[in-house]
Every structure is written in structure tokens, then in C-alpha cells.
Amino acid sequence: MKIFLNSRHAQHAGRQEMFRGRMVDCHEVPARLQHVLDELARRPVGTVLTPAPDLPLDAALRRVHSAEYLDFLSCAWNEWVAMDTANAERDALPSVWPLAQPHAFRTDAPPQNFAARLGQYAFDSGTPLMAGSWTAAREGAACALAAAQAALAGERCAFALTRPPGHHAGPAFMGGYCFLNNGAIAAQALRDGGLARVAVLDIDYHHGNGTQTIFYERDDVLTVSIHGDPRTEYPFFLGHADERGADAGEGFNLNLPLPRGTGIQAWLGTLQRALQAVSDFAPQALVVPMGLDTFEGDPISGFTLRSADYLQVGRALASLGLPTVITMEGGYAVAEVGVNAVNVLEGFVTA
Ligand code: SP5
Ligand code: ZN
């Protein structure tokens, strides 16, 4: 297995996120990735590499994200500091949004104020943006692209070991600790590399809303997500079972929401349904946005998977027999995230 490490990940290190009216310490921290690396040093299930510097990254980003959004992200920190030089010491978070209700707010008269622009592109106030966020997110996307290229070149499994995560980021929005949708970038790169059908199977605790939105009208990329029921779980406003895709994409999105408290048995049963849907689609490659926030000890999530269960998860994913790109998504039980992530990888390679 080839493992593409984001060596710039620590340039993104948010301090606090807004939660229910107060600021709380960020859950998505650099130590998460270091724990995975440490565990990989103990159990070398693959070769750790960094993506080549000359990948066609900008073209790959534009295949998934709008030019306006990419431009916004690349300039965001400078504009934040330009508003107020004191902002250089503060992470940027939105605090005002153009709520989509009839005759409420206009989207055809874009504001110049940067705080308002941030509200146009960010769907929550839990995703701090700082000086190094763009650099870190961009290098993470390079890892996803490199992993897709490795899969196209015949690698059975390639892992993008990166943070910030990606699956909540849409064509022109950030949120849920995500800026660039690494899984979607990998899936699109696999398509552009000549594969006719690619499946995305998202196993993060939270619904992969960004990925769903990106591919919602398409029949060449199947999107499947197993996640906490959005009636009670973040991101709340998408991820229900009746979202099946639209237009040409109708029937090519599958949501499998599960209640808080779901354990390994019911979760694996649902994974079998997801695997069947992937297999029925007959794709030439698989992308797995891998969150470890399904773990029983996760501080912000509600499933009860145990560390050993992740070996089974990896074996089940491998059972499809497809070239597979895995991207690192959530997982906030920091001390255990390394063991849990590497268990999935070990389960996969030993299957
Ligand atoms: C990639 C990913 O897993 N994103 C998840 C984003 C969840 N953001 C909202 C979480 C709010 C949790 N706040 C908990 C405070 C507990 N004291
Ligand atoms: Zn998550």
C-alpha cells in the first residue's frame, strides 16, 4: 500500500471552534495525524511517501471546486488580516450567513466585506481558517490526487494521510473542518484517468454532505454514506435516506443513516448493504473517505465501534476486490485514532 503523507498538515491548527454559544478547543488537531504516523512506524502496512511536486493539482481542484471558491480560499487569510491587522492573531470564523428563505437575502449582490464573504462560503462556525489552512488543504488534495494516480497505475490500495479532512467540503463551500474535498478530488481524478465508473463509500460518523452535493446529478460516480441520522447528528441538513440523486444522478446516491448508539453488529450489517450497492454499480475503483469517529470513545460522535472492529472494516472493504483510495477524514479520540486507522489499513492489506 502506498501512503501519501501531507507533510504540511500542521500549518493548519485551529485553536477554537464555536459550539452552542461558546468557543471550545478544536477537535481536529495536528496530533491526530501524528498518532497515525506513529502507529504506522510500529506497524508498517505500507510505504510512506510524499506527493510529487509537479502533479497537475490546480486542474484537479478545478474539476471539483468552483474557480470562485478556490480563489476565495487562496486569498482568505490575507483578506481577513486586511480587515483588521489585529486579525493576524485570530482564526477566521464566519458569524453571518445569507440564509436561503424566500425573499430573505440576495445572492446576486455579493458583499465586499470579508466577514460577509466568509459567510457565503462557510456553512458553520466550527471550521477556523488561519494563515496555513490553504497550504495544508492544498497539500492534502495533492495527497488525494497522488493516491488516485497510484491506483490508476495498478496499486491495490493507496491512502491519503492528511488533515484537514475533506468530505464536508462542496463545490463552493467549506465547513465541518473541511476546505477541499479530498475524496471527491480522488474520485474525479480516477474518472479523468479513464475509469468509467467510480464509487465513493463514506464511513465517517458524519454524513459526507460535500461529496453528495458534488456528485448529486451524476451517474458516473456512485456516492454511498453510512452515518449518524441527520435528524439528531451533524451536519443535520442533509444525509436522509430519501436523498437518492437528481436528474441523471437519480438512483446514484445512497444514504444509510443509523441512530446514535449503533454498535458494530448493526454497523457491519449496514456496511454489507453499502458494499452490495457498490458491487451492483460495478465500478472500476473505490474511494473510501475514512472517519474513525465511529469509535466508542469519540468525544463528538455516537456510535460504539471498538478498536479491534476496524480490522473487520478493512477486510470488508477489501472484499470488493477494487483498486481503492482511502482518505483520512474524522476521528477525534486522539490517542486511539492511530490504532483505529491503521487497523482498517491492516485489515485491508491482510484480507
Ligand atoms: C470531518 C468531520 O468529522 N467533521 C465533523 C464536524 C463536526 N462539527 C461539529 C461538532 C460539534 C461538536 N462539539 C462538541 C463539544 C463537546 N464538548
Ligand atoms: Zn466525522
Low-confidence stretches: none
The major beta sheet can be summarized as: 8 strands, parallel
Residue share in helix: 25-40%
What distance lies between the first and last C-alpha atoms, to the nearest angstrom? Answer: 13 Å
State the helix count: 10
Bound compounds, please? Answer: N-[3-({4-[(3-aminopropyl)amino]butyl}amino)propyl]acetamide, zinc ion
Mean pLDDT: 98
Counting copies of identical and different chains, the oligomeric state is: single chain
Structural class: alpha/beta
Give the SSE map:
Elements: E1 2-5, E2 16-19, E3 22-25, H1 30-42, E4 47-49, H2 57-62, H3 67-83, H4 114-121, H5 133-152, E5 157-161, H6 182-192, E6 198-202, H7 209-215, E7 221-228, E8 253-258, H8 264-281, E9 285-290, H9 309-318, E10 324-328, H10 334-349
Parallel strand pairs: 1-4, 1-5, 5-10, 6-7, 6-9, 7-8, 9-10
Antiparallel strand pairs: 2-3
Helix pairs in contact: 1-10, 3-4, 5-6, 8-9, 9-10
Provide the descriptors you would attach to this structure in a database record.
binds zinc ion; two-stranded antiparallel sheet; 351 residues; eight-stranded parallel beta sheet; binds N-[3-({4-[(3-aminopropyl)amino]butyl}amino)propyl]acetamide; alpha/beta
